[in-house]
Specification:
The protein is mostly beta strands and about 130 residues long. The chain has one helix at about 5-20; strands at about 25-30, 45-50, 55-60, 65-70, 75-80, 85-90, 95. The protein is about 10% helix and about 30% strand.
Amino acid sequence: MLSTRPYLIRAIYEWCNDAGFTPHILVQVDEHTRVPAGYVKDGQIVLNLGGNAVRDLAIDNDWILFSARFSGVSQEIAVPINRVAAIFARENGQGMHFDVLEAGAEEPGAPAPKPPEGQPPEPPKGRPQLKVVK
């Protein structure tokens, strides 16, 4: 069974764009989240997903991937979908809040996230996992 979280995130993102609002996400940072550490406060970071702020945005069922500039330096950002605590419009705060899952926890019926393209997979923790090679 697929998680509804990525579908809801994409829907709120599209609504923000259609309404002329600026989509932002609140991310609970962990060891799987790739964001500039200097911008993390109390284990969280708010990221602007607006068209003027990001390049090559991809929101798939496991990851939110894009590049953005922080203090003029381009950074590659990778956020596991299950670490998104909220998506909302900057202008009015409307959006959706999500329960953030602890590292290694999965939403009921959801597969574990795959590493971003070009990244080595994390070593297995806990019980062994089968890796499908195409």
